[in-house]
Write a structure and sequence with these properties.
Blueprint (H helix, E strand, L loop, with lengths): L7 H28 L1 H7 L1 H17 L5 H14 L10 H7 L4 H17 L4 H12 L2 H7 L4 H12 L1 H25 L11 H14 L12 H10 L4 H25 L1
């Protein structure tokens, strides 16, 4: 049988759907630039558009199809990481997403949860970023990585005490185990992944600050090249990742300071 020839009405509907989809993308991009200008400045226009595609894909998978729903989903991505729906650091999210009005309810719950760990004005999170930015790699190695698992746990607490309190002892242990598991996936030969204490120290701190799946997050495009370089130089992998992270934190904190001074 020959394929059905599109009727004028079918072509009009297809054109309307295409136009609506394009408008949705423009509206979401405008929302990102309006609500999160610092992120968009660091991302650039092309990467911001890639983030819009990610928002639509992830949001629609959870039933958010309207502009309002996708805006809310975008906000949650920026606050909790783009894959917050599967982040073991956020066990309450999965249960909340199962509700009929999940995004609206999740946004309300997230405001409470994030307010407790990040601070009403984001002051706890800002302090965590400043702490991570200010520490030299060799000092972190001596003070924390050399002490093994207790040192890694102490490093996470020193980075962001409020979030570590919320995770609890079991949650912190799970985070460190997850850091090891995720690290293996970034290297062609998992057996050669640099699973040293110093690597886990850097990787787990980024998980704490940016979300467990930060390496897959389009809002952090610097991570992919940083991990690729680390894979090329496994003996220096931890230091290279730390250097790249500090550079990005420095850039974001400068923009944040400018924004708050305006």
């Amino acid at each position: 049988m020959s394929p059905t020839k599109p009727t004028p009405a079918m072509r009009r509907r297809a054109a309307q759907r295409k136009s609506a989809a394009a408008q949705l993308r423009r509206d979401l991009l405008h929302h990102l630039w309006t609500a999160f200008p610092l992120h968009c400045v660091t991302l650039g226009e092309a990467q911001a558009k890639a983030c819009v595609e990610h928002i639509i894909e992830r949001g629609q998978a959870h039933g958010s199809t309207s502009l309002a729903g996708l805006r809310s989903y975008a906000n949650l991505m920026l606050f909790m990481g783009s894959r917050f729906d599967e982040d073991p650091q956020l066990p309450w999210v999965a249960a909340q997403l199962g509700h009929s009005k999940s995004i609206a309810e999740l946004s309300s719950r997230a405001a409470v949860e994030l307010g407790a760990i990040a601070g009403a004005e984001g002051q706890h999170y800002r302090r965590a970023l400043l702490w991570a930015r200010s520490k030299r790699f060799d000092a972190l190695y001596v003070n924390y990585a050399q002490r093994g698992e207790p040192g890694l746990q102490a490093m996470l607490r020193a980075t962001w005490e409020q979030k570590v309190d919320a995770l609890g002892e079991a949650g912190v242990a799970e985070l460190l185990a997850d850091a090891r598991a995720r690290s293996i996936a970034h290297f062609e030969d998992g057996a050669q992944a640099p699973l040293t204490n110093e690597w886990i120290m850097v990787y787990s701190s980024l998980m704490l600050l940016l979300g467990s799946a930060f390496a897959l997050d389009p809002f952090h495009p610097w991570v992919g090249p940083a991990l690729a370089r680390a894979a090329e130089h496994p003996n220096d992998a931890a230091g290279l990742l730390h250097t790249a992270a500090v550079r990005e934190l420095e850039r974001f904190l400068i923009l944040d300071r400018i924004d708050r001074d305006v």
